[in-house]
Amino acid sequence: MPASSANVTYAMHQRSDRADFYIRDQSERPALMQPHRHDYFQVQINFGGDTVQHIGGAVRPFACQTLAFIQPHRLHFIPHPPQGRFMVINFSSGFLLRHLPYDALDLDDVPLDVAPELALFRFQEFIDFRLDNQDFAQVKALLAQMHQVDRQREFGVELQLRGLLLQLFGLVCQRYQQPLSEMVTNRAEKRGQQAALQRTLRYIRKHLASPDLNLTDTAAATFLSPNYLSHLLRKSVGKSFSELVLERRMRLACTRLLNTGDSIASVARSCGYTDDAYFSRRFRQTYGMPPGQYRREQRAE
């Protein structure tokens, strides 16, 4: 996935005609043909044209009669074929989770016994939600109702739309209750978070010597949004991205000061600093002494 396009995060008003709920087919608005994120929920339903979906760090088949459940801030991309037929449902967090005081970045922490409707979104990277003809016929009927009701927008329509949406979720959850239950038992969402964290740490290690190492590029390379990556690091390691990078660079600097005869300037460059004075200042702030003094004192011991 190209990093530049992967940095795009769309708001509801940019891809929908309404701020709470919007349903359309492929003829009403062109599909996005590059990796992207959005700050709202999305469901895509494939009516014809087998393809794949890129979701987070996974690539899953997206065949006809398959549904994709995309959580806010999750990097994704479905390259629909030219003659593909599909429908898209966009809806805000407030539309789905009216009474839950959770931020969109905290959705992985919401217990499923509190919000079971999140299960399909949480485990999309692990399960392909493909339905048989009978079940898909029910889905098509629900979608037709949503499409019709959404055009009216009279009093009570929001309740009808939410009810129809929950019926769709309930149908898919019932058909996939066994793998979903196994995902819950095995805490698959935690494995997903841990995998994302490990991807991030590997990327930081690999690019530690680059002065251009930054949050935005790291997030794109690890299939996360910058906001979600910042949130994940705070929750998992208790540090911001810049704090984590500084810590890793200072550790590397200590190792090179003690185990090599490289000049301070060379050590600085190997740790991603192009300004020797700035490197020395950051080192002093961390260890209470400049790098040259640190080297002398540690070797004297």
TrEMBL record:
InterPro entries: Homeodomain-like_sf, HTH-like, HTH_AraC, HTH_AraC-typ_CS, Tscrpt_reg_AraC-type_HTH. Gene3D superfamilies: Homeodomain-like. Residues 198-297 form the HTH araC/xylS-type domain. SMART domains: HTH_ARAC. Keywords: DNA-binding, Transcription, Transcription regulation. This is Helix-turn-helix transcriptional regulator. It comes from Rouxiella aceris. The keyword Transferase does not apply. One of its GO terms (molecular function) is DNA-binding transcription factor activity.
